[in-house]
Amino acid sequence: MYFLDKVKIYIRSGDGGDGCVSFRREKFVEFGGPDGGDGGKGGSVIVEVAKDLVTLVDYRYQRHFKAKRGGYGMGSSRSGANAPDLVIKVPRGTEILEEDGETLIVDMVEVGQRFLLAAGGKGGFGNTHFKSSKNRTPRRANPGLPGKEMTIYLSLKLISDVGLIGLPNAGKSAFLAAVTAAKAKVADYPFTTLHPGLGVVYMNDEFFVLADLPGIIAGSYEDRGLGHRFLSHIERCRVLLHLVDGAAPNPAQAYETVRNELKLHGKDLIEKPEVVAISKADLMTPVERKQKLEELEQVVGKSSPVFSSLSRENIDSVLEALMSTLDESSEQAVCAQRDSSDSSEVVPWAPPLH
After folding, report:
1. Quick one: CATH architecture of 1-156?
2. From CA 221, how far away is CA 224, in angstroms rounded?
3. Residue 142: per-residue pLDDT
4. Which regions of the chain carry the CATH code 2.70.210.12?
5. 169 or 63: which carries more pLDDT confidence?
6. Are 40 and 93 in contact (CB under 8 A)?
7. pTM of the predicted model, to two decimals?
8. β-pair type (149-156, 6-12)
9. How many other CB atoms sit within 10 Å of the CB of residue 135?
10. Strands of the chain, DSSP E
């Protein structure tokens, strides 16, 4: 499936229907009064989070969305029909941005969440509204109000439990394919993954969502290699699994390169809980494995598992470390929420001391 995470679209709500100029026409009623109905309301444009969407690919070709106009008023005091609302479905984690691509309108993070982007125009009054003691036969009706139009950006940031990060060709897609049913593209060249992929890991009657993110390169924080789009997906991940290529000549330097990009990008990415692991154990000799593990431990400050997605060596150790880190992250979130609720207690008012 083609993955699309940012798209520019044009939306317009429907115009209100025009009011009607009409008079009663009945037998034996010589002077029938005004009976023009009001126009109907134009359709609004609403954005809604859909449960079954994971990408913005539906908007790859259709970029213009216009709601219908309200119905016209009619005689016999009949009002025009209200136009149906136009609902735009987006996946969870989609940000709605203004035309500049930076100003946030709303962040859609819950399934079923709805937000009114552009209200439909109100219908115009029929001539019945303009009847008075001085003007018994008004020949005036209001036109419907125009709808609103705007150009917006839909920007998707994946929401997952674990995000796979690392330099290109570090074995992220191979790990995703080894532990989930996701059909990730695996090849022996950099930037095999150009779009994020999702998979579900089941372990000990529990599960978590794993996101395979494109490789980060030096200068990603400056938007090199589509760096901003790649780094933005990391913002919604609870825990990071940092894979270091065991076949690389200097794993410690590769680890520091990625960590530096997270730090320069900001938004507290550097503070996220992290599990570090060395991939491609099947390509290392025992001597190389020991040497590179020691070099990485000096930088990370703790021991890191060495695994192979091909032979599945130590795969369970990596998953157990992720489950443990996820549990710790959940406990910290609960404690933080409890502390914030305690600090927000209402303090009784007391008169100031003079």
Report:
1. Distorted Sandwich (2.70)
2. 7
3. 94
4. 1-156
5. 63
6. no
7. 0.66
8. antiparallel
9. 12
10. 6-12, 45-49, 64-66, 86-90, 94-97, 104-108, 114-118, 149-156, 162-165, 197-203, 206-212, 239-245, 274-279
